[in-house]
């Protein structure tokens, strides 16, 4: 009797094994979503904020794509405010804090804001919140000194935004763009070159640190707005070297690449008095963005560039969004 029971039990286990394996195996779905934040203006540069999904057409490498999700311009954002508190900003911290506070005033009530300071360290001063008093306090206590970890700070901000799920996402970063580690790489690259070869030696697009950050932003559809401080510009020196000029030009070009690749805009701060106005303009620009999602018809992940073009079907309107992404 016991032997028969044992045999039946073993047969049950053998029969159940494939079913258990099916339950334990992870289900892999090979899908991709491309998210675009799109601004639209008329021929006089005035933002247009009353469009619907039917007013847009999206093409990837010239092939029309089906829009799977659309959010109107009034939908709330999750925003990370990155404040450069490295040594180069020490002399005008008060200007930074007063100007950043203007950004809070221009946000919509439903926008969630996280404030992060960065220098040689990265500190989240407050997690995502709609509490403007809490964010204002974070701005007021921001402080630091030392080197600039710009790209680590951007990576950190992107990680935090990843927890905000399907909300619309943006980063506003105040910096001169001179990341200490990346500049050290540039310096090593041109160290042994004669002066006449230095200006063409640094390819800003080829930097691995930059490209890792851009790929992370692509995956979430995060729009990045750099506010470029004038600090570190060798043009302000009495006798700048060819190497100083080349390294600074590469750093500034990388900020332009970050803005263009993510659909944001680079705002150069030429005078500190402009800072508050530029913060307010960025906040206003967020209020004019639509968000469009689509599943690419070409799901081949070959690492190649996919060019994106957004068209508005109504005549006389001009859209702005990111240029594309690498299919990785």
For the structure shown, list the relevant keywords.
single chain; 328 residues; alpha/beta; Rossmann fold; 2 domains; 6-stranded mixed sheet; 4-stranded antiparallel sheet; 14 strands; 35% helix; globular; disordered N terminus
Describe the structure.
With 328 residues, this protein is α/β, with parallel strands linked by helices. The protein has two domains: 34-72 and 289-326, no CATH class; 77-286, Rossmann fold. The protein is 35% helix and 25% strand. Helix 2 (93-106) links the parallel strand 5 and strand 6. It is globular, with a radius of gyration of 24 Å. Mean pLDDT is 89; it is low at 1-31.
Outline, from the CA principal axes?
globular
* Strand percentage: 25-35%
The neighbouring-strand order within the major sheet is: 7-6-5-8-9-10
Name the average pLDDT: 89
CATH topology group of the largest domain:
Rossmann fold
Helix content: 25-40%
Distance between the termini: 60 Å
At the first level of CATH, the class of the largest domain is Alpha Beta
Q: How many domains would you count in the coordinates?
A: 2
Q: Rg, please?
A: 24 Å
- The count of DSSP E runs of length 2 or more, i.e. the number of strands, is 14
Under CATH, the homologous superfamily of the largest domain reads von Willebrand factor, type A domain
Oligomer: single chain
CATH architecture of the largest domain: 3-Layer(aba) Sandwich
Uncertain residue segments: 1-31
SSE topology sketch:
Blueprint: H1 2-24, E1 34-42, E2 56-60, E3 63-65, E4 67-71, E5 77-84, H2 93-106, E6 112-118, E7 122-129, H3 132-141, H4 150-161, E8 168-175, H5 180-190, H6 208-220, E9 223-228, H7 242-262, E10 267-268, H8 275-286, E11 289-294, E12 305-312, E13 317-320, E14 324-326
Parallel strand pairs: 5-6, 5-8, 8-9, 9-10
Antiparallel strand pairs: 1-11, 1-13, 2-3, 2-12, 4-11, 6-7, 12-14
Helix pairs in contact: 2-3, 2-8, 4-6, 5-7, 6-7
């Amino acid at each position: 009797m016991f032997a028969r029971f044992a045999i039946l039990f073993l047969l049950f286990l053998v029969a159940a094994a494939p079913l258990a394996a099916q339950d334990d195996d992870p289900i892999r779905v090979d899908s991709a979503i491309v998210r675009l934040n799109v601004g639209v203006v008329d021929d006089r540069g005035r933002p247009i904020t009353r469009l619907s999904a039917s007013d847009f057409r999206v093409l990837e490498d010239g092939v029309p794509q089906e829009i799977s999700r659309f959010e109107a311009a009034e939908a709330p954002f999750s925003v990370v405010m990155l404040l450069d508190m490295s040594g180069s900003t020490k002399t005008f911290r008060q200007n930074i804090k007063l100007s950043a506070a203007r950004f809070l005033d221009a946000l919509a009530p439903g926008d969630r804001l996280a404030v992060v300071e960065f220098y040689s360290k990265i500190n989240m001063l407050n997690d995502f919140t709609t509490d403007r008093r809490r964010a204002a306090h974070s701005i007021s206590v921001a402080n630091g000194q030392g080197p600039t970890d710009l790209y680590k700070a951007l990576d950190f901000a992107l990680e935090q935004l990843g927890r905000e799920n399907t909300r619309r996402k943006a980063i506003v970063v105040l910096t001169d763009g001179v990341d200490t580690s990346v500049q050290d790489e540039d310096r090593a690259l041109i160290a042994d070159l004669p002066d006449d070869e230095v200006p063409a030696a640094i390819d800003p697009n080829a930097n691995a640190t930059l490209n890792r950050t851009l790929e992370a932003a692509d995956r979430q559809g995060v729009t990045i707005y750099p506010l470029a401080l004038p600090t570190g510009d060798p043009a302000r020196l009495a006798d700048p070297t060819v190497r100083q000029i080349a390294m600074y030009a590469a750093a500034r070009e990388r900020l332009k690449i970050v803005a263009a690749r993510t659909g944001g805009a680079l705002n150069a701060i030429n005078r500190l008095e402009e800072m508050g106005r530029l913060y307010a303009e960025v906040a206003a620009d967020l209020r004019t963005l639509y968000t469009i999602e689509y599943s690419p018809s070409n799901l081949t992940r070959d690492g190649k560039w996919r060019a994106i073009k957004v068209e508005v079907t109504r005549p006389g309107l001009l859209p702005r969004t990111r240029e594309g992404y690498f299919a990785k």
